[in-house]
Fold:
Amino acid sequence: MTRTQTPASFQTTFAFQFSNNSSNLPNQGGNGLTFMIVPDEFTVGRPGPWLGMMNDACQEDYKAVAIEFDTRQNPQFGDPNDNHVDKTNRPRPPNKPRRFTFSEISTATRGFSEVEILGSDARGMYYRGKLPNGCQVAIKRLSPEFLNSQQGLDRLRILKEIGDMSRVRHPNLVPIRGWCHDNRETMIVYDFYTNGSLDKWLFGVGVLPWTRRFRVINDVAEALSSLHSKQLRS
Structure:
């Protein structure tokens, strides 16, 4: 893509049909379709009533234009009915990355219950959690051993890296919901994905064919390249 700084006009023609067979099941089925013009290629929006238009990492001055074909009425967005087309200015999802308290994290993980443990690595333990709004999250609790190590002692640098990462948008990076630096604890809150960790898929017997493994390698390389281009580390 070449940036010319010059507006360009275009036109297109298409035809499609919605078939929402789950209209009687409010928690299932799609909400519609959006055609969107954005200033970058890494915008990955949230599903559901936001129709994939925006994500939590978008800055306040993020410019975008979207045409939505909506099959559900969401009063909070001013939808006129459950079957409309609109040039939309839909609000950004109300869960931009923020600071959590230790009490909030403890409640979400049921007191860091062993039942909620997802795994661990050299830096700490991962827990599954549930926020008051019902969203499931994965919480990385940095261990005392790491925080007392030479790398972990620079708390300001760690918090700066977390803040920088929370503003990164890329389809191959797990979004950061927030962080906690409270009660001598440092934790990171991520979106939760139900398919498990990558190592279980890579090292499980006969789980992923090599064609899929090459795709994983390519996706990881693209994410790392994006981080390095922004002078960030994984």
Remarks:
- The radius of gyration is 21 Å.
